Amino acid sequence: MIPDKFRVLGPDGNGGTILDARSPYTYMERSIYQKVSEAFESQMGRYARAPDISVLGSCFQLIPNEVSLYYPPLTLMFEGGAKMELSWIHYLLLDDRSNSVYLSFITDNVGGVVLNVGLSGGHR
Questions:
Q1: Which of 41, 79, 91, 110 is deepest in the core (most CB within 10 A)?
Q2: Cα 47 to Cα 100: distance, rounded to the nearest angstrom
Q3: Which 3 state secondary structure label does DSSP give 117?
């Protein structure tokens, strides 16, 4: 669950959530990122780990010529009961050259959440 302190702007102007159309990644506070990446990694168990690239740490090698790819569903749950259900296109980056998939969430160890432009599609 994402606590309100990472969703709501505080009286001092810190915290909150930012929608950044320039970023290909969603930045998450470290404790939230760790929970999301651990859950993602546990559901991707049928795929071998791929080498991490740049800031992306949850990387998996897809099975060549696999007809039906499995991407786990992802729902961000916020304090107060709000839910944001995401399809794979909103949280994965695919690399056709290496046949790999990468979780597009990263952490920079600062408080707050920055949602990339991909997460804005279809969500209000």
A1: 91
A2: 10
A3: helix
Answer yes or no: are the C-beta atoms of 108 and 12 closer than 8 Å. no
Q: Which domains does the chain have, with CATH numbers?
A: 4-9+18-120 (2.40.70.10)
99-114 CB burial, b ≥16 within 10 A, e <16: ebbbbbbbbeeeebbb
CA gap 56, 61 in Å, rounded: 14
Q: What is the pLDDT of residues 11-60, one digit of tens each?
A: 877 666 666 666 777 878 788 888 888 988 998 888 899 988 877 878 99
- E strand or H helix at 94: strand 92-95
Q: What is the pTM (predicted TM-score) of this model?
A: 0.71
Q: In whole angstroms, give the CA distance from residue 41 to residue 102.
A: 10
